[in-house]
Design a protein that fits this description.
five-stranded mixed β-sheet, alpha/beta
Length: 206
């Protein structure tokens, strides 16, 4: 996770004095958020059952007095002002999706539509007992929550975009009203390989 953020940050936050501290500190804070928050740990359930997670993100923003919006589709945008010394920097959009496709072993008793996945930790390794962990795209949710939660991590103005129903056809992204976003640079925190930062894409179709 540290390597992925460092690579992404080096490309997008180039020239910002806040980069080093952000890349160094976000990983442990993200892990703490995931470990201590059951709703964040689940990071959305099976596609099209993400309403509870969307509502939880709204509560997360309210509790921290952060500006937010939630649309009819369930997408949530949370804004956080820049830390001291970075207020003149241009805002950066961070984006990830809150839905996930859950799979479990045949002997796993959990009802994945109603119960949280069971997190286990061995050293620096985090995994789920009997099910997939939901790293796609739980890693993005954890990173964004870490930056929104921890006031000691330096950063430019942030616009954190949590979209829904990516796994069934980018439905949340299609419904998103981007007119509320001021940033012109975005990091999509959803990739196949750690340490690989894609700077452009020709698009795709099914």
């Amino acid at each position: 996770m540290k390597k992925m953020l460092a690579v992404a940050g080096a490309a997008v936050f180039a020239g910002l004095a806040t980069l080093a501290q952000t890349a160094t500190n976000v990983a442990p804070t993200a892990l703490k958020v995931v470990e201590t928050t059951p709703e964040a740990a689940q990071t959305g359930a099976v596609a099209k059952t993400v309403e509870a997670t969307s509502d939880w993100l709204v509560s997360f923003a309210k509790d921290r007095k952060l500006a937010y919006t939630q649309d009819k589709a369930g997408n949530v945008i949370i804004w956080k002002d820049a830390t001291e010394g970075a207020s003149s920097d241009r805002p950066v959009i961070l984006q990830g999706h809150i839905d996930m496709v859950l799979e479990k072993r045949d002997d796993c008793p959990l009802d994945l539509l109603k119960q949280h996945i069971q997190l286990k930790k061995e050293g620096d390794i985090l995994y789920a007992e009997g099910t997939t962990l939901g790293g796609d795209d739980g890693i993005a949710v954890a990173m964004m929550l870490a930056l929104l939660e921890d006031d000691t991590i330096a950063h430019p103005p942030l616009e954190c975009v949590f979209t829904v129903n990516e796994e069934v056809g980018l439905l949340g992204a299609e419904a998103l009203d981007v007119s509320e976003l001021k940033g012109r640079r975005m990091i999509n925190l959803d990739s196949e390989d750690e340490g690989i930062f894609t700077v452009g894409c020709a698009g795709g179709a099914e």
